[in-house]
Structures
1.
Amino acid sequence: MNSSDVYRLEALLELAGAYPGSLTAREVARRRDIPSTFLARLLGELARDEVVVTARGPRGGVRLAAPPEAIGLAQLLPPEAPAEVGGAAVRWLAGRLAEVQQELLASQWLAGLVKLEREQGTTPSYEI
């Protein structure tokens, strides 16, 4: 997963927490520590893909286009391209990893990540 994928998921998790309401891009950027210009580009891509809906003006903002339960992770994260370099064994392994990743993502929903984040956020940490 690259940094764009991480920021995309972080923004969507924030919007999912506010669903069905909306947030300003500035709020999302501040809450998730995402560079605002980068977030604007990501939100534009997500709006083109009809994952989010944007509205301008004083009462504007960004919101999910559907409930978190209806947004699959496979539609949010592009598949990893299998390696085109290396020997047959390396290409085979890269292809299998891509298949496993797609299988996992096909069975996961944004709502599941929201639930996980809430559970982890309320669980005390004993790290030193």
2.
Amino acid sequence: MTELFAIEGEAKTWKEALQHTSAVLLQNKCVADDFYDSCVERELVYPTGLTEYCPVALPHTSKDHVIHQAICAMRLKEPVKFYSMEDNTKTIDVRVVLNLAFLDDSQHIEIISRIIRALKEDDFVKNLTDSPIDEFKEMVYDKFLK
């Protein structure tokens, strides 16, 4: 079973946003101590900002850094710049960071596919950025983990 943590907060950079989400996963014993560093290394090579659908980033790393499967969903008060997965020379303003910690690579791909499909729904995207945090968490769970 995948645990889900939902937080709201502020960050000045994408690294700071990753630091917040990684800290939640680490505090809940879902990831190893080097999870954050590994996410940053991967993000530098393979950016995860989605431009076509919604201002969302999907940072993650290999299962080698995961203890217990989880997602930390962070909604930012103000957007931060992530590099685009479609064009790593461009940045996009991201409001939602879904830091994925998975033990199964095939499940990783399935969850990312679900996320991309859901982000094509205008109502879902609007509610994702505007709803109260408990509704935000429920929406993420229902769309991506159910």
3.
Amino acid sequence: MRRQKIAAMLCILCSIAVVACTSANPQDTAQKQTSQGRIVGVSTVSKQPLTTNYTLSGTLEPVSQMTAAFEVPGRIVETKVQIGDVIKIGGILAKLDTYQYRLQLDQAIQGAAQAKAALDSAEAAIHVSTAQVKRAEANLVEIKKGARAQQRERLQNAVTVAQAACEKAQIDAERSQRLFEQGLVSQSDNESAQLALTNAQNAVKDATSALSEMQAGATKEQIGAASSMLDEANAGKLASLAAKKQAAAAYQAALATKRQAELALSKTTLFSRVEGVVLTKSIQNGELAAEGQSVYTLGNVNELKVLLPLPDREVKQWKPGTVVDVSLYGETTKGIVNKIYPTTNAATGTINGEVVLNNTKLGWSPGQVVKAGLNQTGRDVILVPVEAVIREGDKPFVYKVKKGVAAKTIVQLGEHTTNNQFEISGGLQTGDQIVTKGAELLFDGDRVQAVKGVAQ
């Protein structure tokens, strides 16, 4: 119903236009409605050769490039390369002032030496405490075991000697007493003999007591004291071990600080991590460089790439591995489609296709604008103007002209689009006549008056 209304309105408008514009340019007749049908442009379907069509352009870029930057801040004292210089992997790019980093390294070395000395002292303390524990353990064992056989024998001998001396002193004292009573010795001599007897008796008591004590073994107090000495020795050893552990940790921390200072010093020289050409230089001698601030941009220009904005209807033609003709100032080379980006540019509706080309002998440079097109020479296909194809959903169609009537004909689109023409892979044959101008105003079964012409 809606189509009928639109058709009626269009017919009225076209009738008015015919009356008002009888002197109009003959080219406008394609929009006029006559009694014989709507006037449209037609074209006869034929096969045409596919040729390279340089319809896309893009800017050359290195396939691989990187930003060279210092990993530590400082003042640049020397830049070794300039824009355009070729650099090898490991080549020196620039240097920073190293005074501050050398000072930090010296301090770290001293700190590591002090920490090592503390560790050595802690290890020596462990040796001392270990020896003390061993002595305390031996003392406790000896006390608990009691005297050895040799000690008992010595004490027994001492008792025997003391008893023999006591017996002799007894005899001497008795004889001295008789002689004193007879007046044959003085009182002083008699008292000396009696005192010698008393001393001999005391010696027997001491020797006998020592022997008894030895035979009875160590007392609880003696064992307790020896055990306390062993506990103190063990506690001292544990403290020494803890001190060593702490000193070892401090030493490792000092070594880490030293390695960090060495690493920072090594990073005052900026090396190239790629082989290529210096593309940009962002800083000069004497300037302060922040950590991560770009100093150079390096790239490999032996292989270049160009991003081409592919219309979404043509993306299927640009498959990875497809050969592409790339042109610059009349010089042409071959490129290879490397990849098709997965997203569409919201602003343009295009999809980027990356083409890679060998630049070893060309001498082309990043930043130059090249033109590119698919190499399609050697094939004859049916091509129809883009405006002849009408899309409704996923079934594109054209209008064939049969005996003055427009017949809606479903077609299959091929992979290629060139010179604003679609490749038709099915639905049309050579010799068919199709509407190429005014198709958007037609309906299936409309009468038409055909004006032949070659599609643009």
4.
Amino acid sequence: MTDPTTRKLLPAWTLVAITIAVAAVALTALAVLGSRALPDRTGPPVEELVVERTALSPSAIELTVRNTGPDAVQIAQIFVNDVYVSFTGATEPVSRLATETVRLDYPWQDGHPLQISILTSTGAVIEHEIAAAVETPTADRDLLALMILLGTYVGIIPVALGMVFLPVLRRAGRSLVRMLLALTVGLLAFLAVDAAIEGLDLAAQTGGAFGGPILVFLGAAMAFLALTAVDRLLQRRVDSVEKTSVDGRRLALMIATGIGLHNLGEGLAIGSAYAVGELALGAALVVGFALHNTTEGLAVVTPLTRQKPSLGRLAGLGLLAGGPAIIGAAIGATVSNAAVASLLFGVGVGAILQVIIQITPGLRDQTGKVLSLPVISGLSVGVVIMYATGLLVAV
């Protein structure tokens, strides 16, 4: 047994460091000695490649591939629509989780489908399909300007339009305010489910690299814990005399943050869809997103019905909620990475869940009941609104 005097002489951090060092030495010895004692694996190598990004230029196709399997992969031949094509790049085997860029010489035709077959040195075939070939936009100043404009149309302007309803909301009674808060929860819950589905779909495209679907849950957990910590810090600054007023502003800030993180993922999807030619820019897109995201602005200002925030504060909340759509669109149009995208969608999910927890106490009536008739009505209307306006948006 350890001498009590020794425990007093050694600080806690020293004991922790010693314990970690002993565990590290033991694990290292196990890895070195254990690998020598175990037999070699039998059977053929396990080869897995995932195409993370496709860039098309005149008479050329550029593929960014990642090895998601346990063994190195050597690309031997590549076929496009069952025709052998010459390629450059990937002269050495692609090691686990590493990426390589392969350039194919192929005179593709605009709008035509492409079926790409990658043949490895062991005879394994990795398939990749391009539904409709379209030239990839160049990441230049014009593309950045377009993404800023698009992010403003689908993010900032709709959120600002929703926030204009604040004077109307101030005339609402207590029951109507609780109904509007419930509507906000319905809106956010729909956004969380939508973001989770998008994130899991993207994670499936990674071929399991970096955890696959785990990335969505990891991002959600990180965002939830981070926003919880931020909320605790903000809560410490609350003056007990003005607790109600400051709480409303704090809740509006948390809602704007959650919606902003969701719009970051939404902008990412928009930019990615535009880069591969799957997004039709036009009045239908703008109007669809305007109707869909206006409700987000309504959600931001609902907690402020009993406060009088300055125009500067309202502008800041609007930028926080809608501005990330610009950042997401710019990233999505220039850097396509399914793993990063799925992680960001997970971040949006976690942020929204934390905000829903913040709103829930405000739904209680005088008897302490949460699911009263106004709350149930608000939840239902919120979900239906997001579903109906979501039908107008195709990304």
